[in-house]
Amino acid sequence: MRLVLLGLxxxxxxxxxDLIAERYGIPHIASGSLIRDAVASGSELGxxxxxYMRRGELVPDELTIDMVxxxxxxxxxxxxxxxxxxxxxxxxxxxxxxxxxxxxxxxxMALEIRIDPEEAIARIARRxxxxxxxxxxxxxxxxxxxxxxxxxxxxLYRRVDDTEETARNRMLVYMRQTxxxxxxxxxxxxxxxxxxxxxxxxxxxxxxxxxxxxVNPRRVxxxx
Length: 224
Ligand code: AMP
Hints:
single chain; three-stranded antiparallel β-sheet; binds adenosine monophosphate; alpha/beta; Rossmann fold; five-stranded parallel β-sheet
């Protein structure tokens, strides 16, 4: 299964990506995590890309394409993968298709998780992440805020780019640079859209409905 997840920051790509990975036993590769790891390593590359991330701007295409391409070449990707946050530009989408075509492969499905931008900004403001396993939590401020991850015990933290100002910029960047990627996959007949403004389980039920078509090819082509 080779899948890309599209949608505004805060739409739930990370959460759904984790669920799909668990259900189908394939790696969930988030380009944002690759970028945060590079920044945290303090390498020359990390220092070069940190300012883009902090401002909510896209890291240059050449760098993200190389990072994701290297990740896809690892052994655990042989049976498939879920890409989350990549491609974010049409140039990245074309580069991905070209790279896969060299091995007679393709992106089988692009799942777009749709959500209202104001809801996305509100979710980002409430979001905490586990520094160890990357699990995502939402705290609405009404109850006590946990400090550790309930699944692995890691310390929870707030991403440096999860401020309201940066989140607003990330929405604009998505509309300008990433929304055309939705059309790119739509034209190729590979796009499936899901209403992300519902409980996690309901969104995942729709995700599974579409994914079953990949697992059972006779169902591909049925009405969307
Ligand atoms: P995310 O965790 O997906 O919200 O990504 C966090 C930040 O990493 C983004 O705001 C960008 O600065 C950078 N980033 C992640 N994926 C990409 C990508 N495919 N292309 C360019 N920049 C990216």
